[in-house]
């Protein structure tokens, strides 16, 4: 579906990343995982994307971990992720449009 991103897409060339971002993916959700205190607000408000993991912190499902240890997911529509970001007490969820 055009409005959704392909989280499992293995083509990570710079060229494809730009095309994917411009055409298929309009925004990115980023979680600074180290800052998460595991309060569970994001998982309660947005269970489609957020879940408490074994380390007691939340994890953004389908995301990839970057070199800084943050989790990132490109998506076509923000859906409930804005609610999760707004509710996060340590503001470790960013919606980048
Ligand atoms: S709302 Fe923020 S602090 Fe709470 S579990 Fe989610 S990411 Fe962690």
Written overview of the protein:
The chain is globular. The two termini are 20 Å apart. Helix content is 24%, strand content 23%. By secondary structure, it is α+β, with helices and mostly antiparallel strands. Strands 4-5-1-6 form a four-stranded antiparallel beta sheet, covered by helices on one side. The structure holds iron/sulfur cluster.
Short synopsis of the structure:
The protein is an alpha+beta fold and 97 residues long. 24% of the residues lie in helices and 23% in strands.
Taken together, the total number of domains comes to 1
CATH class: Alpha Beta
User: Rg from C-alpha positions?
Assistant: 13 Å
Catalogue the unreliable spans. 1-8
Order of the strands making up the biggest sheet: 4-5-1-6
The shape is: globular
What is the percentage of strand-forming residues?
A: 15-25%
Question: Helical segment tally?
Answer: 3
Bound molecules: iron/sulfur cluster
Category by helix and strand content: alpha+beta
Mean pLDDT: 86
Helicity level: 10-25%
The CA-CA distance between the termini, in Å, is: 20 Å
- Biggest β-sheet: count, sense, barrel? 4 strands, antiparallel
Q: Tell me how many strands there are.
A: 6
**CATH topology (level 3) name:** Alpha-Beta Plaits
SSE sequence, one letter per element: HEHEEEEHE
Q: What CATH architecture do you see?
A: 2-Layer Sandwich
């Amino acid at each position: 579906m055009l409005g959704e991103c392909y989280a499992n897409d293995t083509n990570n060339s710079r060229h494809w990343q730009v095309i994917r971002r411009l055409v298929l993916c309009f925004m990115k959700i980023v979680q600074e995982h180290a800052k998460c205190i595991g309060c569970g607000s994001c998982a309660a408000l947005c269970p489609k994307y957020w879940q408490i993991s074994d380390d007691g912190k939340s994890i953004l499902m389908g995301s990839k971990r970057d070199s800084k240890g943050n989790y990132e997911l490109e998506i076509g529509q923000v859906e409930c992720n804005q609610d999760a970001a707004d509710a996060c007490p340590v503001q470790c969820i960013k919606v980048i449009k």
